[in-house]
Amino acid sequence: MDKHSRIYVAGHAGLVGSSIVRNLKAKGYNNIITRTKAELDLRNQALVNRFFAENEIDYVFLAAARVGGILYNQRYQADFIYDNITIAANVIHAAAEYDVKKLLFLGSSCIYPKMAPQPIKEEYLLSGPLEPTNEGYAVAKIAGLKLCEKFYHQYGKCFISCMPTNLYGPGDNFHPEHSHVIPGMMRRFHTAKLNGDEKVVVWGSGKPRREFLHVDDLAEALFVLMEKYDRPETINVGTGIDHSILEVAEMLKDCVGFKGRIELDTSKPDGTPRKVLDVSRIKELGWEPKYSLEEGLRHAYQWAVENRVFDTKIIELGEERQSEKADMHERPGAV
Ligand code: GDP
Q: The domain containing residue 324 runs over which residues?
């Protein structure tokens, strides 16, 4: 990529996309192309084709997806599979049709088999059954990954993919139910501190182990991949370090300054028991994360407070689905 390349960041308003844009702008890239959900429905093939035909795009970061935490994923599997499969198929196909030089597609560590040996190596993909709570999402993301690989082999397209681990940071979704564990717990600790509550509830047994990467570290890894990686095999991006959910809850409690106790709600699902990536391949490219988890959590919390994310109205699951059904045709695929 040179500083004037036409770079399309799909999903620029989301956690990952916004971080990619910040990263590229800081490096002096001055031709970054974005479209809001209202401007371009990525689930609509004709609109996506027209967008590529009109914009002469050189590079694509494909970070648009419907994403959500364990409960949201579990409840809306049909939406997760449909939205993510159409976004991936439309954008990847259009990128091939309109001669994009290079495309980087984002998978996710949660699409590896539920019982994959740990740390998870790239070749474990499709070696066993998936985690049922996010099967819809996983099947769609696997299809996207395979599309890139097959376009690489059949048409010689430089379409690559990577597998980020669990992410957090500025721009995250802080909804109490839809979100992933870090922003979800952060909100609860923050609210409990303000209300002077005695306890905060953490979902599940507290025993599952997860690896967490600050999104700005991911954005730098994606930049390195765009610059240096030209292989069809997917590549893991993570820290290689995991923590139990209870340990993360304790860190968040300290970070937020909540003085009460933690209570576990074992009626909520645990999901995969352990998820930590083998990151030897990406390290060979010279990348490594800058944030420790403690530093990253402090940074994310500070961002959330400064941006008043805990003050905004919470849209309930039912309400959100209703409004989305109502304007299905105008809504974008990038959610
Ligand atoms: P996963 O990595 O796909 O399982 O996604 P999540 O980030 O949603 O959940 C990770 C783990 O954290 C699961 O074991 C959850 O049960 C647990 N957890 C604890 N408290 C929360 C919370 O407030 N929100 C979410 N999403 N998960 C939580």
A: 7-330
